[in-house]
Design a protein that fits this description.
140 residues, four-stranded mixed beta sheet, 6 helices, 14% strand
């Protein structure tokens, strides 16, 4: 696997923060002398529909969806795990989360994030964290 395309909800502040975080991570080796490249496409966009006409694009707006260069499609906890796998620092964690014993933990983490996302959108906080420059100093 040399490249992954991450379809993310560009209207969701939490989703955009994840995109920026993932883009900032050092890439992991691809096993062929290069690194795993990650590209981001807004879910449901004209570009996403043109690139992947076979996908249910309404569903890609509800859950992060990742497409590998070999055509494999990852959704939900599998998508989050493969995103972690692409990073140098978090690859070992991804490998652990992909084991049968740890998949329930991965699912629970994804469900928790989905709950936070749903709450921020329902309460009008869809742009949650967008004003943060990552340099916040919380004291107290």
């Amino acid at each position: 696997m040399r490249e992954l395309t991450v379809l993310y909800d560009a209207q969701c502040g939490l989703c955009r923060r994840f995109k920026y975080w993932l883009a900032a991570q050092a890439p992991a080796p691809d096993g062929q002398g290069g690194v795993v490249r990650t590209r981001f496409v807004a879910a449901g966009s004209a570009e996403a529909r043109a690139l992947y006409p076979e996908l249910d694009h309404a569903a890609t707006l509800r859950e992060v969806t990742v497409i590998a260069d070999d055509g494999s499609v990852y959704v939900g906890d599998r998508a989050w795990i493969v995103c972690l796998w692409t990073t140098y620092e978090h690859r070992r964690t991804a490998i652990r989360l992909a084991t049968p014993a740890m998949r329930p933990v991965a699912r629970a983490m994804v469900q928790a994030v989905a709950g936070v996302r749903r709450l921020t959108v329902e309460r009008g906080g869809g742009d949650y964290a967008d004003g943060c420059d990552g340099q916040c100093d919380h004291q107290g």
